[in-house]
Amino acid sequence: MKEHGVQSAEKSAESAEKSAETQEALLSERQKQILACMELEVFYKTEEIAEKIGLKGPRTRQLLNELVAMGRLNCTAATKNRRYIRIE
Fold first, then answer.
1. Which of 38, 45, 64, 77 could form a disulfide with 86 if both were Cys (CB 3.0 to 4.6 A apart)?
2. What is the pTM of this model?
């Protein structure tokens, strides 16, 4: 019985790894750039990210919201004081 549990755990780990690889492949170059410039546990304003990656605010906001929808970022507040934080 233990052997089956080990095999199941290995399959779960492989599945999680493939899922992460698949998700990484779905990211655009700009989304990868955003994630690369964000440190863990640091909150960022849209304008800060826009400046780091060289895009205007509205396009950056769209990319950030896509990353939130994918579960790669969390955000705080609804509008004016919105901040983004990388989760991983």
1. 38
2. 0.73
Which has the closest alpha carbon to 61: 26, 31, 20?
31
**Residue 87, CA distances (Å) to 6, 55, 58 in order:** 28, 22, 22
Sheet holding 73-76, edge to edge: 43-44, 83-86, 73-76
Rg (C-alpha) for the chain, rounded Å, is 17
Among 32, 40, 42, 86, which Cα is nearest to 63's?
32
Greatest CA span in the chain, whole angstroms? 57
Tell me, which fold does domain 2-86 have in CATH? Arc Repressor Mutant, subunit A (1.10.10)
Amino acid at 30: R
Report residue 59: phi and psi, to 5°: -70, -40
Where in the chain are the domains? 2-86
Confidence of residue 88 (pLDDT cuts 50, 70, 90): confident
